[in-house]
Every structure is written in C-alpha cells, then in structure tokens.
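#struct-pred
JK: can someone run the complex with oxa(dethia)-CoA? inputs below
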Amino acid sequence: MSVIRTVVAGVGSYLPARVVTNDDMSKIVDTTDEWIVERTGIHQRHIAAEGEMTSHLALAAAREAIADAGIDVQEIDTIILATTTPDYTFPATATTVQAELGLHHGAAFDVQAVCSGFVYALTIADTFVKTGQSKVALVIGAETFSRLLDWTDRTTCVLFGDGAGAVVVRGETGEGTNADRGILTAHLHSDGRYKDKLYVDGGPSSTQSTGHVRMEGREVFRHAVVNIAEAINESLEATGLKADDIDWFVPHQANKRILDGTARRIGLPPEKVVMTVGEQGNTSAASVPLALDKAVKDGRIKKNDLVLLEAMGGGFTWGSLLFRF
Ligand code: UT7
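RT: done, structure tokens with the ligand placed:
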C-alpha cells in the first residue's frame, strides 16, 4: 500500500566557538574534572558568545541542513524550532529564522518540550507531512542553555552546553513497509506530576524573570532510564522490529551513564550508540540533531540505515522515533 513517508533529506549543526573545559568549571564552582567525567562522561561544553542568540545558532544549523538537502530554500513551508531558550518570550524564535531565511509563506513556530523538544518537533513535522499540511519542513533544535544556568550551583552548571542541530524533511511515497525510507513510527509522552523534579524557577507569568535551572538529578536519572527504555520498546513493538535491526542509536545526550544503561537495557552494543555528551555536554533540544549530524557527516550513518532517536527531559517529557535514513 502506498503511503507518504517523512524522509530526512538534509542535516546540519552549529556549535559556538568558545569551549569551556571541566578544569575551567573548577575555577567557577567547587568541582573537579574527575567528578564530572566519572558521573556524567562530560569533558567540555560549548558556550555561546555574548550577544550570540538561539536564533543565530538555529540559523547556522538550518543553512547547513538546507545546503545538505540540496533544496531551494523557498520550498520550505514549515519551520518548527524546539527550544527552551527563545531569543524573546515572544514572538517564536522560529519566525526570526523564517525572516532571516527570506521566507514569507508557510508557518513557523516554536515547540517547548525541553530536552525532548527535537523528538516532539520531528514528530509534529511527520504528522504535518503525512496529512498534507507540509511538503518540506525545517526542524531545528537550538539552545543557549547556558543563559538559564545558576553558575554558583555545581549540581547543574557543569552539565549543560549550547548548540543547534537541524534537519530538512520532505514527503516521499513509500510502500508502507519497514523497508521504506523515512519516519516509521514515533511515540511521545509526558507526565506533569514530575514537573518539579527538573524546572526553571522563573517565567513571565510567575516571576516576570527568566529564572534558573533546578534539578533533582538522582530522581531524573532514575526515571530517565526506565521511561526511555519503555518508549523505545513501544517503537519496536509498533513496527515489529527488533533491537538487532537498529543500525544507530542517537539518544538525547544527558549523561553517559544514562546512555550506557539504556543501551544495555534494550540490548544494543556500545558501538551502535552515537555519543557526543563528552564534547558537548547536555544541549537540551539541540543534542539529538547535533549527534545525528555528527554521525551522518563522519560517515557512520548511511542511506537506508535504521536510526533510533530518543529523549527525556523536564515535565517530564519523553519519546522515541524510528526512521530509515
Ligand atoms: O536532560 C534532562 C535530563 N537530565 C538528566 O538526565 C540528568 C540526570 N541526572 C544525572 O545525570 C545525575 O544525577 C547527576 C550527574 C546530575 C548527578 O550525579 P549523581 O551520581 O546522581 O550524584 P548526586 O546528585 O547523588 O550527588 C553525589 C554527590 C553529592 O555530595 P554528597 O551529598 O554525597 O556529599 C553532591 O553534592 O556529589 C556532589 N556533587 C558534586 N561534586 C563535585 C554534585 N555536583 C557536583 C559537582 N562536583 N559538580
């Protein structure tokens, strides 16, 4: 049976130039390189320059993805930008990207699902494409997460970084089988009972300020491994595919221990896991497309490979998505 599949046609990414190492962090808060590496796998993170905003990062990643897809920018009819760190409370940062790209048609909007934002945004794009709302969509995850950090709180400030990743997706006809290129299945979840486990203590409606990230790390960790594994199993069950069929696992990059634990739980060998957390830290909504871009550009992910994405973040929100590249 012929179906419309949402195919990833191009990938791109951008990292700010400034690198902050764990030794640099130890001059800011009471921490050590040993503690950070042992507990998280993080060695360094990129931090946006003064005046460098989320839209700048997003635009750089978007331009690379558009060039990679080889499309005319005017073909894009939808821009979905996942971010927790918009340039302004409104308008959506996606509309800034739209204007900078010279687009005056279609729709552009932001998605807020924190670290799960890119998986949410790509799932929305998939629905838009499958229902005919969109033919070519630009999906971006971009964050200047450093702006939300309390630089006196060692339990959070060592974990995060800034960056952006983007994909161009477009509708193509498939056979309706797992051999099709494109998104095969996606599963999103949230559970607001846990909203106080990972949150920002400010916002326009509450404090009229931006606020800082607060997290009960151990609690988030405990839920992450279980929720992520369940969402992945959902994707496998929905398609009838097995863990062995997955060529590449491109997870949200929060903590190496979470990634190792998840891979073990679903029976994936470490060499199939794309890991960027060591060099980039946790870039929230940007981490999945940044990791995807890296593994495509270095030649690991090839056309027709089966790729599994997953993410988990504040809310809690979480989800998984399976696609054939
Ligand atoms: O992307 C959104 C999802 N976020 C996550 O998935 C994050 C999930 N959580 C984690 O990754 C981990 O829980 C952390 C990396 C945040 C923390 O690791 P942990 O093994 O759970 O450590 P902990 O919070 O239980 O803290 C252990 C000790 C504490 O000291 P005491 O109370 O045992 O004396 C902390 O105060 O480590 C201390 N500590 C630090 N020490 C040095 C916490 N942060 C630091 C630090 N440097 N940066």
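RT: quick notes.
The first strand starts at residue 3 and ends at 14.
The radius of gyration is 18 Å.
JK: thanks, will look after standup
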